Amino acid sequence: MKALVVAALCMAGVAQAACGPDALGTSRTLTLKREAAAWGAAQHAALPGLVPGEVVLTFDDGPRPESTPLVLKALADQCVKASFFINGEPLRQHAALARQVRDAGHTVGMHGFRHDNFSQQPAAAQLADLEAMQAAYRDVLGQEPAAYRFPYLAESPVLLAALQARSLTVMSVDAGAEDWLPSQTPQMLADKLLGQLAQRGGGIVLLHDAQDQTAHAMPFLLQALKAKGYRVVHLRWE
After folding, report:
1. Is-catalytic flag, 129?
2. Contacts of 151 by beta carbon, 8 Å cutoff, 6+ apart
3. Nearest one of 233, 217, 215, 220 to 63, comparing CA atoms
4. CB 77 within 8 A of CB 83
5. Rounded CA Rg of the chain
6. Which one of 94, 106, 111, 208 is the catalytic residue?
7. CA 115/CA 55 separation, integer angstroms
8. Neighbours of 138 (CB within 10 A)
């Protein structure tokens, strides 16, 4: 057993070293309790435990075969771990890709079975979507989910209460690049992201692995974060 542990640590060290000294890297892991909390200064309190200059990278709307693998490669090239908030429909359609995200060491949360604005849906439809999302998560990933992000960040009292009853953490955001808007260059995305981070001092970053422009811009965005001295914190739940 000791030999296996040593071998695993050595392999981890080789993987980190393979990124080179100029890699952005992951500075540390922040582990949260599985509880009915809500984080992200856009709608709630700032995530506890972060200090100025630290960012948590998060991605929404995947998995998508045309773009998610490019995001995963960019993160791996820079030894960066992130959190992916996935939708239930693509989760079932692309189960192997979802497991690839998890197996790469990233954290996987929920983002609604469908990408609907649940604040505009009847209560029964909201609760049915949550049930479908949780079932897909369990079936595909074989785990219990710990966190949920509302599509469009459109929180509803019905789902907030349901998530609280299930001890699921709600994740909002602190900064982003508005990468759902079309026809943006990597420089445009970087300027928006760095501008918002400068106002906040760091925090939870919202990006979308289902967007082609974001996937192609990821190497540039990670380099931009490195150049500005930001440190990546990997978020996990115990």
Report:
1. no
2. 60, 87, 111, 112, 114, 115, 116, 117, 118
3. 215
4. no
5. 17
6. 208
7. 25
8. 12
209 among known catalytic residues: no
Of the residues 60, 61, 129, 209, only one is catalytic, namely: 60
Q: What is the pLDDT tens value at each position of the chain, 238 positions in all?
A: 333 223 333 333 334 447 778 899 999 999 999 999 999 999 999 999 999 999 999 999 999 999 999 999 999 999 999 999 999 999 999 999 999 999 999 999 999 999 999 989 999 999 999 999 999 999 999 999 999 999 999 999 999 999 999 999 999 999 999 999 999 999 999 999 999 999 999 999 999 999 999 999 999 999 999 999 999 999 999 9
Instruction: Return the C-alpha torsion angle 49, 68, 110, 28, nearest 10.
Output: -20
* Beta-bridge partner residues of 60: 85, 208
Query: Cα separations (Å) of 174 from 165, 171, 236?
Result: 25, 10, 18
- The structural domains of the chain, ordered by start, are 35-237 (3.20.20.370)
Distance from C-alpha of 156 to C-alpha of 158, rounded to nearest angstrom: 5
Bridge partners (DSSP) of residue 201 are none
Q: Which two tokens stand for residue 41?
A: 């200064």
Structure-token pair, residue 45:
């309190």
Contacts of 9 by beta carbon, 8 Å cutoff, 6+ apart = none
Token duo for residue 136 = 């897909």
Handedness of CA 146, 72, 46, 173 (dihedral sign): negative
- Taking the model in full, what pTM does it have? 0.92
